[in-house]
Amino acid sequence: MRILLIAFLLPLCAVAQLTNVQSDIEQLLKPGQHHPHVDVSEPFTDQWSRIIIHESIDCGDDLCSEARYGLAHRENGDTLSAVFREIKLFNGRIFLSNDSWACLTDINLKVTHAYSRAQMLSNHFIAASDGEHYGVLDTLMQQVIPPKYDSIRQIIDLVAPHNDKTPDFIVKEHGKWGVVNYRNGVKIKLSFETLIELDGFAAFAGKKGKYGFVRWDGVPVTQFTYDSMYTDWSSPNFIVTRDKKIGLMDAVGKELVKPSFSEVTRASSNGCRCAKLNGKYAVISGNGINLSGFIYDDFKPYLVVHDEMLLQRNGKWGFFGCRSKKEISPFVYDDIAAFYGLEAEMMQDHEKKKIRLRDE
Asked: Phi and psi for 331 in degrees, rounded to 5?
């Protein structure tokens, strides 16, 4: 089967743009001068090292910085000033992107292609603008997706994240999101107001203020009945909400627990969570199974949710084990003084007692 590849159409000012970008690069290239404030220097090609600086940026009351990249010649010290947001290799060319333009150069920094905006999506594809819309180019600099979209993101294959030669792309046109393949064939119609990529060719999608779970490999779409859908990436299942109640959904879009909880925690390493219903807490498994019953009055959170969960019942504290699916200490303690994972120091009648936790 023959595949027709059409050359990517640059704007009419492409020649002038190419010249202007080359002039900018020559002004940024300082002969025999090293950048005065290099934070990191790392190998890039046989000829160049990539240098990194961190610039302070305004982000409210916080102290923030962002990385800027440059190049230093490994023999004569010529330095391309570190003003670029991105410097990467693309099929033997150097990809440069700053606040004003993006381009591809040969190894000697001679510009071969220039764009008003562009971004490397992977080792095999670049999203480039014709001045108004984005299309996608392959390593031969041939167009695979025409410049018709307002936004393009490549869907990353987790097995080969940078070497997928036949990926899908999430695209936006006229305010609607959808999915196309690497030949611009439609996988999901551009009909969603929101499309947030998940693992496994799936996404959260928003339509008319409601959310659903979609896939583009033939699996049916869930109903758009949720007020929100999100994941904290601590577990393969997802959080869904409806009418201010929280439920769980698995990785293929099946509702594990209908929205009914008033609170859920992050997942532990073994996938358990604490959930709150009608003012009581329970421990639930990664599949949404109730392991303990809603019998606990309080739950003590830590920065990390441990498989050994500290809960309160009838005014006394104790531990429930996620792996063993049972209580692993008596609920007789007034408070906790310290918790080390496999043991804890508990307070009972104003005395400190060390207890071992066997969650087996």
From this structure: -95, 75
Q: What is the largest CA-CA distance in the chain?
A: 83
Per-residue pLDDT, averaged over 342-351, amounts to 94
In the structure encoding, which two tokens stand for residue 181, read together? 């393949």
Residue with tokens 């997928």: 164
pLDDT digits (tens, 9 = 90+) for 275-286: 999 999 999 998
Q: If we measure between CA atoms, which residue out of 179, 38, 176, 14 comes closest to residue 101?
A: 14
109-158: per-residue pLDDT in tens? 999 999 999 999 999 999 999 889 999 999 999 999 999 999 999 988 76
Answer yes or no: are the C-beta atoms of 239 and 248 closer than 8 Å. yes
In angstroms, the Cα distances linking 114 to 90, 101, 117, 179 are: 14, 7, 9, 27
| CB distance 297 to 313 below 8 Å | yes
Convert the pLDDT of each residue in 12-46 to its tens digit.
345 557 789 999 999 999 988 766 678 889 999 99
Environment class of 80 (CB within 10 Å of its CB; exposed 0-12, middle 13-18, buried 19+) = buried
Spatial CB neighbours of 346, under 8 Å, sequence gap ≥ 6: 317, 333, 334, 335, 336, 337, 352, 353, 354, 355
